[in-house]
Task: structure prediction
Amino acid sequence: MSKFYNRRTNELTPYVPGEQPKDKKYIKLNTNESPYPPSDKVLDAMRRAINGDLRLYPDPDCVELKKAIAAAYDVAPENVFVGNGSDEILAFAFQTFFEAEKPVRFPELTYSFYPVYAQLYGLAFETVPLNELLEIRCEDFFNSKGGVIIPNPNAPTSVAISLADVEEILKKNLDVVVIIDEAYVDFGAESAVQLVQRYQNLLVVQTLSKSRALAGLRVGYAIGAVDLIAGLEKVKNSFNSYTMDRVALSGAVASIQDFEYNRTIQNKIVLTREMTSKALQEIGFKVTEAKANFLFVSPPDSDAKKLFDRLREKGILVRYFAKTPQWLRITIGTDEEMDALISTTKDLIKEGSSENE
Result:
């Protein structure tokens, strides 16, 4: 508390990112970053952008990037909004489409930035519990008074809903905006972008951070009806017209256009995910049906915090959330990193069994 803060700032509970410790070298499986580097085409484009033109402001309309995204998804550039990471776009969307007195609806167990944004902008919100399989039930999101936001696949559970379910939610909320947050869609879910031309209330948000291996670049984009995109532009240009720099814009265009490389690393991550899921289930873990670049798992004794702490001692970072004390979120790394995780976990389970004898 501070006497210099306004009431809302004093009441804020900010988002807590995954830890980035510097004390020693870890196997980092806690922040859903790609285990593979960006494509060489991306790095080359960024190097070329580091020149004397950095003295000039970047294009505030990001025209070339919007054209590249539009071509990739078969939409018009007017259907595309770009920003400094999908988190910034989500923040703009909360400001643009949701009202203080009409609660926006999202899952109870989901991306923890949503309630932070709602609190920051003074918005009412309501949360909906998942079912016993940690799945989103589409009927729980019908007839929202203020709007809907759903990650697909959901985080931290890694479970996806079908495109048919997304469409049902859209049909039952024609008078409010439905945001589908597709940060992890390229790892196994079906994108709702193909529904944009049919539903004026749909906004799809994606990022280059996960499946394009560019978490450090901070580039995200949204695809939706022209009216929705114009609203986002209005809010953005009331805040900061130059949200993306020249180097990031150059790298992002190259990334969007390098479909072959992106698909290659996405497929590698999916194969490693399935191998890891099977191995953990064989030693007694519960594992949700993953469609993202991470697994949501419950250890045999359900003591996720204990396993989290022991893995950290062994130099392996995973993510633990106090609100889900029986579960851990594990980012998919390289095959070698996941082999180390599985081997270490087996040893820790064996040690735990010996201590209990």
About this structure: The longest strand covers residues 202-207. The chain has two domains: 7-37+260-352, 40-258. The mean pLDDT is 95. The CA atoms of residues 217 and 248 lie 6 Å apart.
